[in-house]
Automatic annotation (TrEMBL):
Belongs to the FAD-dependent glycerol-3-phosphate dehydrogenase family. Its EC number is 1.1.5.3. It holds the Pfam family DAO. This is Glycerol-3-phosphate dehydrogenase. It comes from Geoalkalibacter ferrihydriticus DSM 17813.
Length: 537
């Protein structure tokens, strides 16, 4: 659907049942849940879908090994329930989006025999809590097998390892897939549309005054109920409603670095259970590269946070401790920082101890805020939010929640080895076929058909992203800016910032032709994208 049609649909006279503010994991999940129940739903996002925290995660679908340890040590039921819910939802996500998510084996290296029973017992409990949704049994592996799976590990002093399984996914594409699935269920979704004030009638919230940040047009979106799903920025929307509202969130920054593929094996991740300050660190294979993360430091809530030099140094220092390789800043292909929305607890010593669980709050004027949580439990959070909205706003859904067995776009007809057929039928290089298969699932056929029409060239010679994707995501996935394509729809910038920079010009040309940009718009898009790549990525 063309953007002008989306904006027109937002301005319809008949109020929506729900207006969702925020297009990250939480908001996109809520929009899908509500629309799939037959609730008339609109969603707006200030930037692009998942431009903030939701595209900057560690790419793991997990119950939370660290949270389990906290639950046991502190007899903390909140953390325990968070792990149990997370392990169930991990199974649901892997089932509903098999093209975007899969099982990942991880090895925890042990350099002391004293660690073996403690770590192994904890991970076995992790398996038990997963129950029928388990995706593999933990086991102790020998020193030899640990080194075979992760050959770069420092062998000196290595005693053994523990192998366990979690899920891994493409978070940025997961968010846009939720959005496109919500669209097919009848939702109206718009990125680059910002809520600038809340509309009130007789003391009750009845929608929002919004601004299209592309056209600069301002207009009103009316709705029976408004859900604040803006992640770390939830308190700022709450203050639009009640200027004196006390904050309910704190934020921590989590940065990640991406290294060249020579630093990661193709199929096994590494989980370091305790760094110098007691945090968990992951070294993971991700789209042919090595993903290292993450930090957990108190942070200010700002748009597009920048990774700090000391945080990058922290990650590199720990990688050197476990890798038998020389690694320095020159080996980094990309970095990014994300803000975690954490429920505020004045008694917590640091942000690592704040719960990742979620809460729902309704103000006197009827603003429903969903706060906290994490990617893995997005679906349960959405279900809870919509259930609450139905009662709060007296809605009449046509169906009950059924997102636990609702395949996302690209999942229906997805075959695990479908990339082989894609490669042979369309004469695509194996890495391109694999990339399209995993990014688009059964929809990859449409991208491949575009490639056959003269759009099969790579955007960068070292990466499998092709020109056909730029046209496809501009046409079908609401990509409105160059950065929407290079950072989130294809994730090229998250893997290799310099490669993305080199692809800017061709991406502008393709989007200009597809979306009808004039030279002034092309000039602005080049500038905006390069600025983003130089600062936030």
């Amino acid at each position: 659907m063309a953007r002008k049609d989306i904006i027109r649909n937002l301005q319809q006279d008949t109020p929506f049942d729900l207006l969702v503010i925020g297009g990250g994991a939480t908001g996109s999940g809520i929009a899908l849940d509500a629309a799939s129940r037959g609730i008339r739903t609109a969603l707006i996002e200030k930037y692009d879908f998942s431009e903030g925290t939701s595209s900057r995660s560690t790419k793991l679908v997990h119950g939370g090994v660290r949270y389990l340890e906290m639950a046991i040590k502190r007899l903390d039921r909140t953390q325990y329930n968070l792990v149990k819910d997370g392990l169930y939802e991990r199974g649901v996500l892997l089932k509903n989006a098999p093209h975007l998510a899969g099982r990942l084996p991880l090895v925890t290296p042990l350099y002391s025999w004293m660690e073996v029973p403690y770590i192994f017992a904890g991970l076995k409990l992790y398996d038990i809590l997963a129950g029928k949704m388990g995706i593999g049994r933990s086991r102790i592996v020998s020193r030899k097998e640990a080194l075979e799976r992760f050959p770069m590990l420092k062998a000196e002093g290595l005693k053994a390892g523990v192998l366990y399984y979690d899920g891994q996914f493409n978070d940025a594409r997961m968010a846009v897939t939720l959005i496109t699935t919500a669209l097919r269920q009848g939702a109206v979704t718009a990125n680059h549309v910002e809520a600038i004030s809340l509309l009130k009638e007789k003391g009750r919230i009845a929608g929002a005054v919004v601004r299209d940040n592309i056209s600069k047009q301002e207009f009103t979106v009316r709705a029976r109920g408004v859900i604040n799903a803006t992640g770390p920025f939830a308190d700022s929307i709450r203050r639009m409603d009640e200027p004196e509202a006390a904050p309910i969130l704190k934020a921590s920054s989590g940065i990640h670095i991406v290294l060249d593929k020579r630093f990661a094996p193709p199929a096994t991740g590494l989980m370091i259970p305790k760094t110098e300050d007691g945090r968990v660190l992951f070294i993971l294979p991700w789209q042919g590269h090595a993903l290292i993360g993450t930090t957990d430091e108190p942070a200010d809530i700002v748009d597009h946070p920048r990774p700090k030099d000391e945080e990058v140094a922290y990650l590199l220092r720990h990688v050197r401790q476990y890798f038998n390789l020389e690694i320095g800043p020159q080996d980094i292909k990309s970095t990014w920082s994300g803000l975690r929305p954490l429920l505020d607890d004045p008694q917590a010593v640091d942000t690592a101890r704040l719960a990742r669980d979620h809460i729902i709050q309704v103000s006197k004027s009827g603003l429903l805020t969903m706060a906290g949580g994490k990617w893995t439990t997005y679906r349960k959070m959405a279900q809870d939010a919509v259930d609450h909205a139905v009662k709060t706003f007296a809605l009449a859904p046509e169906k009950n929640c059924h997102t636990d067995h609702l395949p996302l776009i690209g999942a229906s007809g997805f075959e695990e080895k479908g990339d082989l057929k894609l490669s042979s039928d369309f004469a695509l290089d194996a890495d391109i076929a694999s990339h399209l298969h995993r990014a688009y699932g059964s929809e990859a056929l449409k991208v491949a058909e575009l490639a056959q029409k003269g759009l099969g060239k790579r955007l960068h010679p070292e990466h499998p992203v092709i020109e056909a994707e730029v046209v496809y995501v501009s046409r079908h996935e609401q990509a409105e800016r160059v950065s929407d394509v290079l950072v989130r729809r294809t994730t090229l910038a998250l893997l290799d910032k310099e490669a993305a920079r080199n692809a800017v010009e061709r991406t502008v040309e393709l989007m200009a032709e597809e979306l009808g940009w004039d030279e002034a718009r092309c000039r602005d898009e080049r500038k905006l994208c390069i600025q983003l790549l130089e600062t936030a990525i």
